[in-house]
Write a structure and sequence with these properties.
heterodimer; A: 309 residues; alpha/beta; 36% helix; 16% strand; B: 94 residues; 3 helices
Chain lengths: 309, 94
C-alpha cells in the first residue's frame, strides 16, 4: 500500500505490512500520531506502540493492546482498523474528539511480534511468546499468565509445554516486561484494555481470586454499557463479568496486574466468533468485528473521560 | 510450515460439573497433544479443542463413553488454513 488510504483493512497482514502501516500513519498525521518503541522482543524484533495525542504533558491516558496471543489474528487486524479510525474520527466525531482533546491513547497493535511472525512462517496456531525455557524443548510462555498478579497460582500451568505456561518468573517475558515498565514510567494511565479473540466476552478483574474487585459494581456497569453499544451495530451478543466468574480461574493475567497498579478501568475483550471458525475467522469478518468493538471501546473511553479519578 | 491435515476442532458441551471435570482430565493427557481454544469452564459453556488426527478416535470414544455431547466445529483445520492463505495471496496479487 502507498498510503493508509489504499491499505486494505479487509485482509490479514504480515508483521512487516503492519509495521509499514504504522509508519505511513505517522507520516500522514504527524501532529496526531507518533510511534514509540517500548522494547525489543526475545528474538530482537522492535515492539512499537502508537501514541495518539493532541498535546499537553503526560495527559491521563488510555491503553489498548491487540495480539498478545499471536494466533488471534482478528485482534491485530482490528488494531490496525482502530488506528485508522482514530485519525478519521478526530475532528469529525464530536464525542471522540472530546476524548482525544482530554486524554492520550496508546495503541499496541502487535503485542507479541515473535509469536505473530511465527504464525505466518511456521505455525498459524501459535499462541505464546517464543522464549526458550532452560531444560525444556518446549518454547514460549503464555503472555497472559506472566504478569505479577497471582503469578503461578491455580489458573496457569507450570509446564513449559502447556499453552498456558506462566513462564519462569513474573515478567520473564520481555514483551510483558516492556509494557510493565511503560505503564510504571507513564504513571497516568487511567484505562487499560487488552484485546483477545474469540468467545464474545468483556471481562474485568479478578481472574486469579474469587473475591470481587473493590470497583466491581462500577466495572460491571461500564461493561454492560460497552456490550450494549457493541450489540447495537450487528446484534453481536457479548457476555460480561469478572474473569473467574465468567470463564475460569486465570492467574497472572494482564488486567489483574493493571488493576493492582490502580488502573481502575481495566478490561479484557474476547472478540466475536461466528461459532464456526475459532481463531480462523474469515477476513470478511475483520471490519464488522472492528466496527462493533470500536463502539464498545468508545463507550469505555467516554466513561473514563467523564469519571476522572 | 506446521501441517494440520486431519486435525478437527470439537465443541464440547458439558452439562454438569462432573462432565466438566472429565473434560479437564482430557486436558491433563499430554500425549493426546490437545490444544484447548476455549478451555473447560463451567457447565453450559462450550469448550473448543483442536484434536490432532492421531488422537481423534480416542477423544471421541472418551467423550461418547461418558455421555458428553460434542459437535465438530471445524472438520479439517488445514482446509481452513489453506483458504486463509489463498485469500491473503489473492489479495496481495490483486
Amino acid at each position: 500500500a502507498r498510503s493508509t488510504g489504499t491499505f486494505s483493512y479487509a485482509t490479514y497482514h504480515t508483521l512487516e505490512e503492519i509495521y509499514d502501516f504504522m509508519d505511513m500513519l505517522v507520516v500522514e498525521h504527524p501532529q496526531l500520531v507518533s510511534k514509540l518503541q517500548i522494547g525489543n522482543t526475545y528474538e530482537g524484533r522492535p515492539i512499537y506502540v502508537l501514541k495518539f495525542s493532541t498535546g499537553g504533558n503526560n495527559r491521563p491516558a488510555i491503553w489498548i493492546d491487540t495480539g498478545i496471543h499471536s494466533r488471534e489474528w482478528v485482534t491485530q487486524a482490528s488494531g490496525v482498523w482502530f488506528a485508522k479510525k482514530i485519525t478519521e474520527d478526530y475532528g469529525q466525531d464530536p464525542a471522540f474528539t472530546a476524548i482525544l482533546d482530554t486524554m492520550d491513547i496508546f495503541l499496541e497493535i502487535v503485542t507479541n511480534p515473535d509469536g505473530f511472525a511465527f504464525t505466518h512462517s511456521k505455525n498459524r496456531l501459535w499462541r505464546k511468546t517464543r522464549s526458550i525455557t532452560p531444560g525444556s524443548s518446549c518454547v514460549g510462555a503464555d503472555p497472559n499468565r506472566n504478569w505479577d498478579a497471582g503469578f503461578g497460582m491455580a489458573g496457569a500451568s507450570g509446564n513449559p509445554c502447556s499453552e498456558t505456561y506462566h513462564g519462569q518468573f513474573a515478567n520473564s517475558e520481555v514483551e510483558v516486561k516492556s509494557i510493565v515498565d511503560f505503564v510504571k514510567d507513564h504513571g497516568n494511565i487511567k484505562a487499560f484494555i487488552s484485546i483477545h479473540s474469540y468467545s464474545q466476552l468483556l471481562l474485568y478483574p479478578y481472574g486469579y481470586k474469587t473475591e470481587p474487585a473493590p470497583d466491581q459494581n462500577e466495572l460491571d456497569r461500564v461493561a454492560k454499557s460497552a456490550v450494549t453499544a457493541l450489540a447495537s451495530l450487528y446484534g453481536t451478543k457479548f457476555t460480561y463479568g469478572s474473569i473467574i466468574k465468567t470463564i475460569y480461574q486465570a492467574s497472572g493475567s494482564t488486567v489483574d496486574w493493571t488493576y493492582s497498579q490502580g488502573i481502575k478501568y481495566s478490561f479484557t475483550f474476547e472478540l466475536r466468533d461466528t461459532g464456526r471458525y475459532g481463531f480462523l475467522l474469515p477476513a470478511s469478518q475483520i471490519i464488522p468485528s472492528a466496527q462493533e468493538t470500536w463502539l464498545a471501546l468508545q463507550a469505555i473511553m467516554e466513561y473514563t473521560v467523564t469519571h476522572p479519578y | 510450515k506446521e501441517n494440520f491435515v486431519g486435525h478437527q476442532v470439537l465443541q464440547i458441551s458439558a452439562v454438569d460439573e462432573a462432565q466438566v471435570q472429565k473434560v479437564k482430565q482430557l486436558e491433563e493427557l499430554e500425549h493426546l497433544q490437545l490444544d484447548f481454544w476455549r478451555g473447560p469452564a463451567q457447565p453450559g459453556s462450550a469448550t473448543d479443542v483442536r484434536v490432532p488426527f492421531t488422537s481423534l478416535q480416542a477423544v471421541k470414544i472418551f467423550l461418547e463413553a461418558h455421555g458428553i455431547r460434542y459437535r465438530i466445529l471445524i472438520e479439517n483445520v488445514q482446509a481452513l488454513l489453506d483458504e486463509e492463505q489463498e485469500q491473503m495471496f489473492a489479495f496481495q496479487s490483486r
